[in-house]
Design goal:
GO terms for molecular function: heme binding; iron ion binding; monooxygenase activity; oxidoreductase activity, acting on paired donors, with incorporation or reduction of molecular oxygen. The chain is α+β, with helices and mostly antiparallel strands. About 50% of the residues lie in helices and about 10% in strands. The protein has one domain: Cytochrome P450 (Cytochrome p450, Orthogonal Bundle). Bound molecules: protoporphyrin IX containing FE.
């Protein structure tokens, strides 16, 4: 099939690229070229994306990684792990991590997340307007929460955050490698410390589990960091941007903060306008909506486009915090559904409840289109959020 689009699509933070919009109207499976120049399939329909996210004919590994099409948009690129043992490896990792996100584990974290959020907003309010809500709230909160989850001592959080930012700078591979190396070295050091002096945290509990090596615990900790840090920064930033550029929706939330649960789901749905996608490789030949996909080919499951499929979400470009939005696939679906979703939701609820109640007159200090977006970071999102109140 002929290549019909080059990734990435050029688009503003809140608008879908015209070409992507056109492709969606033509079908659900499209032949595209990635930023690295390799061919791939881009799947844009909600029903298809949701089904394929839970289909074990697609995976994250490739039998010959050196020949695999590359996305060029993620930190580790799309190929992750060993083709022969993928299902068993993934099951083991998921089983090791899942208990740390159970309702029982989340309950005591909620007041800690709320206290951290309150503290960051106190600092913002003390600073006074104009202020950069991105730098003062969206960036620090997720890292502080992950530090609490992993048991990173408070005094190390700033160094930890700086290495994470370096590692995520995919535009500068040397800097990114340096950040990663520092993080892994620190992770090993932390595991060694927790073996001697355990605390009430994920690393200590993994140390207590049978048959888990120090290297594996350090690796799992870093996986949580990468899975839960930038993703949450982006959702907080995009949520603020979406709410403040839709003043009627912002006023509705300020008027009734009880709408926050729906607002969070709508932010999660609306924040990604599509064009990227969760990468998978076909483990065997398969057919997607009548299109033949060959074993080994790269398939991008565009969850942002799925979240804007009018068949699933009527009038998808309209932000509506009262719509039923929870069928969004922002956390994925099925086999690899985001383990951290309950924690991310706690963070987003804490932030948007507090912003709405403490800063009811909040507004952007610049036009929405003038908000700078991050071109280099792994997951995009705003680079700044200049606000007044
Ligand atoms: C709003 C913020 C977040 C978003 C949008 C998000 C999104 C996602 C998505 C789309 C996946 C599935 C990837 C795939 O199918 O290949 C995923 C998986 C995962 N996420 Fe999240 N995530 C967020 C926050 C977090 C947090 C806070 C944590 C933990 C601290 C976390 C931990 C994980 C883990 C461990 C996986 C892997 C699950 C597996 O492979 O079985 N995420 N996330």
């Amino acid at each position: 099939m002929e290549v019909v689009a080059q990734l990435p699509f050029r688009q503003g933070a809140l608008q879908t690229a015209p070409r992507l919009r056109e492709l969606r109207s033509l079908g659900t499976v499209h032949r595209v070229r990635t930023a690295m120049g390799d061919e791939a399939w881009l799947v844009t329909g909600h029903a298809q994306v949701r089904r394929l996210l839970d289909d074990d004919r697609l995976g994250r590994t490739h039998p010959t990684p050196e020949t695999a099409a590359r996305t060029g948009e993620t930190l580790f690129d799309a190929v992750l792990g060993d083709f022969a043992t993928e299902a068993a490896d993934h099951a083991r990792t998921r089983a090791l991590l899942r208990p740390h996100f159970s309702p029982g584990r989340m309950r005591p974290l909620r007041p800690r997340v709320e206290a951290l959020t309150t503290r960051l907003l106190d600092e913002l309010i003390e600073h006074g307007p104009p202020a950069d809500l991105h730098a003062m709230v969206a960036v620090p909160l997720p890292i502080l929460v992950i530090c609490a989850l992993l048991g990173v001592p408070y005094r190390d959080c700033e160094r930890f955050r700086a290495w994470t930012a370096e590692a995520a700078d995919v535009g500068d591979p040397a800097r990114s490698q340096r950040g990663l190396a520092e993080l892994y070295a620190y992770g090993h050091e932390l595991v060694a410390r927790k073996r001697v002096e355990p605390g009430d945290d994920v690393i200590s509990r993994l140390c207590a589990a049978e048959g888990v090596s120090d290297a594996e615990i350090a690796g799992l900790s870093m996986a949580l960091l990468f899975a839960g840090q930038e993703t949450t920064v982006v959702q907080i930033g995009m949520g603020v941007l979406l709410l403040l550029s839709n003043p009627d929706q912002w006023r509705a939330l300020v008027h009734d903060p009880g709408l926050v649960a729906g607002a969070v789901e709508e932010i999660l749905r609306a924040s990604n306008t599509g064009g990227g996608g969760i990468p998978r490789y076909a483990r065997r030949d398969l057919e997607i909506d009548g299109v033949a996909v060959r074993a080994g080919e790269l398939v991008l499951l565009d969850n942002g486009s799925a979240n804007h499929d009018p068949a699933a979400f009527p009038d998808p470009d309209r932000m509506d915090i009262t719509r039923p939005a929870s069928a969004h696939v922002t956390f994925g679906h099925g086999l690899r559904y985001c383990l951290g979703a309950p924690l991310a939701r706690i963070e987003l609820h804490a932030v948007f409840t507090r912003i709405a109640t403490r800063l009811p007159t909040l507004r952007l200090a610049v036009e929405p289109d003038a908000v700078r977006m991050r071109p280099d970071a792994v997951t995009g999102g705003p680079a700044e959020l200049p606000v007044r109140w």
